[in-house]
Write a structure and sequence with these properties.
Layout lengths: L1 E4 L6 H14 L4 E5 L4 E5 L4 H10 L5 E2 L7
Antiparallel strand pairs: 1-3, 1-4, 2-3
Organism: Paracoccus angustae
Pfam families: HMA (PF00403)
Protein name: Heavy-metal-associated domain-containing protein
């Protein structure tokens, strides 16, 4: 699972575009978006760089959130 912060995701429409960008990389991914906090959780086997590139291409640059136990 990957967790991202997507500062440009501010509404439901943005969340749909973020979800669609991720699904373009992995159509089987499970995507959970939370526009008020700009958080995106993705359950996928896709490469993190491919997800970040797809989000940037869609106009939503993303940053990986630090996850507990990964520091």
């Amino acid at each position: 699972m990957f967790q991202f912060t997507v500062p440009g995701m501010t509404c439901g429409g943005c969340a749909r575009r973020v979800t669609n960008a991720i699904l373009s990389v992995d159509p089987t991914a499970e995507v959970i978006t939370d526009p008020p906090t700009h958080d995106v959780k993705v359950h996928t086997r896709a490469d993190e760089r491919a997800l970040v590139a797809a989000l940037a291409e869609a106009g939503y640059p993303a940053e990986r959130k630090d996850q507990p136990g990964t520091a």
